[in-house]
Amino acid sequence: MTAFLVGRTICGLGGSGMYTGVMMMLSFLTTPEERPAYLGLTGLTWGLGTVLGPIIGGAFALNVSWRWALYINLIFGAVAAPVYFLMIPELQTAKGSIISRWKKVDFLGTILIVGMLISCLMAINFGGILYPWDSGQIIALFVVAGVLAVVFGVQQALCIGTSTEYRSFPVQFLRNPQVLLIFAAEICAITLTFIPIYFLPLFFQLVQTDTALQSGIKCFPLVIFLVVTIVGNGMVTARYPWFQPWFLVGSIFGLTGAVLLYCTDETTSDARIYGYSVLIGFGAGCFVTLCFATAQTQVKIAEIPHAVAFMAFAQQGGAALTLAVSNSVFLNVAIRKISEILPDEPRSGIQRILSGLGSDILSSLSKTDRYRVSQAVAASLSNAYIVTIICGALAVILSLFIVRDRDWEKQARLAVGKVLGRPKETDREEELGIHK
């Protein structure tokens, strides 16, 4: 277990850095017109991984070894490595030695915000599962998270151990209402994206007793419509840069899909679930990556890297927080409901049922009790979509106030040497400091 925890931590650090780095490079290497299309393509690669991951991993687990679901990443990394070293241009955005640049990193702010998030997530995940909500452990975790949040705010505001330019949190954006609106919209979009991707497979496995491979295949409609919409949104927005309609239409579809998924139960047909997931996939795809491009139109050119990091924080931090809340709702409700059906079953046995490892317990139950347990699990999974309904409704409201700064496009063109028509590549490379 220790190896898994350490490995997942390293994977999380690497994946987060790669994702933010890709978004950063695309922002530097593209014009305002090109940017939405290229940012949308990141959704394609993510979607392919989401679609193929369960299939490849399930096939390895069933036929070879589950370890190959992890080894396969080394093969993909080795194939892609030459591209990283030979084809990606060098961006000289910072000067000085590596050591001098490391000294500019806001390590204190990073430690504070990571500690705050970990404490908060631990409290949410452990509450009602390992410890009662009113226990000293859970209260202490929430208190620690709150104290660290206050200390982090003071440290960032006063630039303690850092500088205005290099602090972890872009405090200047707190005075920019449009960026804050887009930040909140990104949290809503990523919630509409990840909660169905996480909980639909659980529904298929725990309620319909499908295998991991079968549940992955049944998520195809959601992921395919999500990816196609992300890519299509990028292509269309690159040609017609009207951002606000995408936010409004997407949030309406996402809210509709979330409400319908909330209404599902153990008798809901696969066809209906596919239809509901298509609605929420299309809705989330309309603006989950568009927030990156939109936020950049609301800041100064020099602040684009901060805007990208700000949106990445909304995306990754929002996903972690809302998934933790939804999972906590699901587990707490499910444990309570199943305990009422199986009063003699220990808590550890109920947790095994919810983790998919309690087939021996279920097989020993009567047909009536098995059906009641299935009902309880389905109802508990539906409660997890309450968070998506809240975020969908909030996104509808936010979309009414998001506007596009038309003056920014002119500034951006000038920043990359574009006055009339398309800039020469040499001009853009010289402006950005690209060395091939």
TrEMBL record:
Keywords: Membrane, Transmembrane, Transmembrane helix, Transport. It is found in: Membrane. InterPro entries: MFS, MFS_dom, MFS_trans_sf. GO terms for molecular function: transmembrane transporter activity. Residues 1-407 form the Major facilitator superfamily (MFS) profile domain. Gene3D superfamilies: MFS general substrate transporter like domains. SUPFAM superfamilies: MFS general substrate transporter. Belongs to the major facilitator superfamily. TCR/Tet family. This is Major facilitator superfamily (MFS) profile domain-containing protein. It comes from Talaromyces amestolkiae.
